[in-house]
Predict the structure.
Amino acid sequence: MSSKAVPDPLVSAAPDASANSDTSMDERLFRRACARFATGITVVTLLDSQGHPHGVTVNSFASVSLEPPLVLVSIDLRNAILGHFISSAWFAVNILAEHQEDLSRRFSSAAEDRFVGVEWTTGSTGMPILAGALAHLECAVTRTFEVGDHTMMIGEVRYAEYREGRPLLFFESGYRNLG
Ligand SMILES: Cc1cc2nc3c(=O)[nH]c(=O)nc-3n(C[C@H](O)[C@H](O)[C@H](O)COP(=O)(O)O)c2cc1C
């Protein structure tokens, strides 16, 4: 029987770029270039071990696989919510509608309890779902790994719902609407 070693994609990351070591990246340039990439905005929510809801504004959301249906969010290692992510088997991604800029601001603010005054319900998996969101995806955590100064959370989508509407966008460090 022949067996072929399948390279771990995390181990076999990238070719050695040391030959071009004069290409160190200026952080401001990196941020400005990335800010030219328009994104939607999500609030990623979960429950802590006591059943309290937590949420954080995230635009590093991406769908990464159809079969199985996988999504990715990237969480800054400095974010307080990360501890809850690490111990939670589930999270929900709430995709914000264009009228929900206030929610984006609230869930990226220093507010003690970001859910005070926020309308939300409980999804099929028990995750907090924000009222009026354009869509939500409830995900089982399948993998987490640190890359640079962030933790990648890969979730398998178990439930999803959407409604018609227009998205809240983020471009060049500012909130935008379509057209
Ligand atoms: C538009 C927008 C997008 C953001 N995207 C992310 C993101 O993808 N990942 C992340 O870790 N933080 C992101 N943040 C920052 C967090 O929302 C912010 O640091 C948050 O207050 C952290 O709170 P915590 O320390 O209570 O977890 C974003 C903020 C804004 C306004």
About this structure: The mean pLDDT is 91. The domain at 42-163 is CATH 2.30.110.10 (Pnp Oxidase; Chain A). The two ends are 59 Å apart (CA to CA). The chain is about 10% helix and 40% strand.
